[in-house]
Amino acid sequence: MKSNITALTLLISFAAGSAQAEPVMVKTNYWQAPIEYNQILKIEPVDQSLVEVCKEYTDLVVGSDGETRLDQEFVQMLRTQSDGVFATEFSTLFRVRLAQSEALIRESIARANRATEMQSKRAPLPYYTPQTADIIPEVTNTDEVQVLSSRGSLTEISENLKLEPMPISIIGGDLNAKIKVRGKDTACDLLSGKITLNYTSMATIKISLDDQLTIDSFYTNLEIMTNDVLRKKKSPLARAAYLGFKLGVSLIEIEKNLDRAAIWALNIVDSFFDSNMNRNSRWSHFNGTDHLSVDGSTRAPIQLQLEK
């Protein structure tokens, strides 16, 4: 699919949103963790000869006033013309700058964690709001890449000449992916930082191992309580009362505020049991036993912004 080109205002609003937007909460049955939806990855050209290619292309296309005197057909020929012996059409590769991108991800995680520190005071379940430990973006294979351009870019000149945007492809599945760019206007704008690439992807969100083990320990204890309750009590009302009592004793050790502990107990019953106080679908069944399986990671959609 061909890339979409937008105006400067979209780039400005996107950049502002990336810096100022409230974190979103990624939720599982047992915990939620904050992330910034927009994640920035820094990229660089694989072939450093692109610098000279772009200088030559810019000198040919752009006049002293920043406009072009060339017609649509000639600019199309120049931007697609290959400088190689065997290739029939220009293309070049960019790669993710790993160290810089990972540093930006760490900064993003720190901002999201700071912005949601108060969430734990309103947590609906015990240990429900650990901090995010890591975000691993999936730089997935796609042609669904949006180009965000700024004024004075070579891409804007092509747009003004009514030229169709050239395809951009992401090749790979992790931070070692390559970005294949066709069209010197797009490639040179990426090199100069006058455009960014934007597309929706997925990411793996992780909490720390210590937090995972703490949460898992609590729900292992809930499994033991549940087995005891279901073995001794037959009626839903008796089960609810007995489990409520056992939960109360356990929760007060975690939360001294009795009102909050009571809310947690009610939410646990609502979250993990049906109306007859039997285990609901959140329990997994394996080898004849029922479990509450706490994973320390989950996947969530993110918006990736690729820029120089």
Can you describe this structure?
This protein starts with a strand and ends with a strand. The chain is elongated, with a radius of gyration of 27 Å. 40% of the residues lie in helices and 23% in strands. By secondary structure, it is an alpha+beta fold. Strands 1, 4, 5, 6, 7, 8, 9, 10 and 13 form a 9-stranded mixed beta sheet that branches. Strands 2-3 form a two-stranded antiparallel sheet. A two-stranded antiparallel ribbon has the order 11-12. The chain folds into 2 domains: 5-207 and 300-307, no CATH class; 210-296.
Our estimate of the beta-strand percent is 15-25%
Global structural class? alpha+beta
Radius of gyration of CA atoms, rounded to a whole number: 27 Å
Shape: elongated
Number of strands: 13
Helix/strand order, N-terminal first: EHEEEHHEHEEHEEHEHHHEEE
Low-confidence stretches: 1-19
Largest sheet: 9 strands, mixed
Number of helices: 9
Oligomer: single chain
Helix content: 40-55%
Mean pLDDT: 88
Compute the number of structural domains.
Answer: 2
- First and last CA, distance: 23 Å
